Amino acid sequence: MRAQDSATTATTIAVTTSDRTGDTVRTSGDVRISGTARTVGTETTAGARSTGGDAAAPARGAAADTSGSRTDPLPRGTLLAALGVLSFSLTFPSTVWGLESFGPWSLVAVRSTLAALVAGAFLLVGRVPPPERRHWAGLAVVAGGVVIGFPLLTTLALQTSTTSHAAVVVGLLPLTTAAFAALRTKRRPSRTFWCAAVSGAVVVLAFTVQQSGGAVSKGDLYLFGALLVCAAGYTEGGRLARLMPGWHVVGWALILCLPLMAVGSAVALSLEPVHLNAHGVIGLVWVAAGSTFFGLYVWYRGMASIGIPKASQLQLAQPLLTLVWSVVLLGETLPLAAPLAAVAVLVCIAVTQRAKS
Q1: CA-wise closest residue to 77 among 278, 271, 241, 299
Q2: Helices (H) then strands (E): counts for the chain
Q3: What are the pLDDT digits (tens) for 50-107?
Q4: Quick check: 345 and 337 in contact, CB under 8 A?
Q5: How many CB atoms neighbour CB 111 within 10 A?
Q6: For 9, which DSSP code?
Q7: pTM attached to this predicted model
Q8: CA angle, 330 as apex, 324 and 332 as ends, to 5°?
């Protein structure tokens, strides 16, 4: 096509088609002249690709058009975080299945050993260098809370507590973690935050007392202890995740526990009986590779993509998902208090997330 001369200036406007010549790609936009749509445009260098011939490429020095189509990382990050929540929600049912074949100490030790071997393989393939010496103390807290303490205490609790009961109690974990984080960072959250956090704790305490016949059971004590150690591990892990990729934190915490857990596996397996069946093996594999490594891996990747606040909103569904799995996979009958208490805790968590610090 030929060039059009401007009616007011001597500037020549190049009218192009969508053809491609050599290393030059021409893109076009729409301009209406006397009711007729004509295309004018500018040349872009090699590598710029037209999306159907309708996207206008900005000239040199001009502001870029942000309204065009582009790949948004939000859907992928949301999917990864959602996969993490789904993996975590299966932890308690898988633990109950694992206890069909293994004793509690054997299950925890073998679980951590297998997860450490998987993490070590990923770190080795990725050629990830060891953390700096100053980070090892924090990694020890993560290992003690997330890798050893929480799995061990919840496994001991699930010997006497139902999965649905444990899901409601552990649903308080985000509030416990937020309180630990506030103390660790010496921040002062608002009164609304603390009112909601205390309200959630009161709901869980009332639920445990009501379900235990007016007293706190031994299983509940294990669960409360699991809340504390896991919250400490999450808080320290969150601090370290600002200094290194989150999955590196999890991987090195697992590696730190490997010598102890390998010895513990040998001792526990020699002392506790083992009765292998399909449920037991599936439960062990899932809590090792699924919950402990894969779940934390996709969770941290998704959280890095969409941010902690949005990821935390997704985690609100975890206790309710665990209640569903307890019915579908374990055949448990839910007392009416379980879903009601879980929803009440979720409301309290949502309020704390919206409360300004």
Answers
A1: 299
A2: 15, 7
A3: 344 443 444 433 443 333 334 444 578 788 888 988 999 999 999 999 999 999 999 9
A4: no
A5: 29
A6: S
A7: 0.70
A8: 70
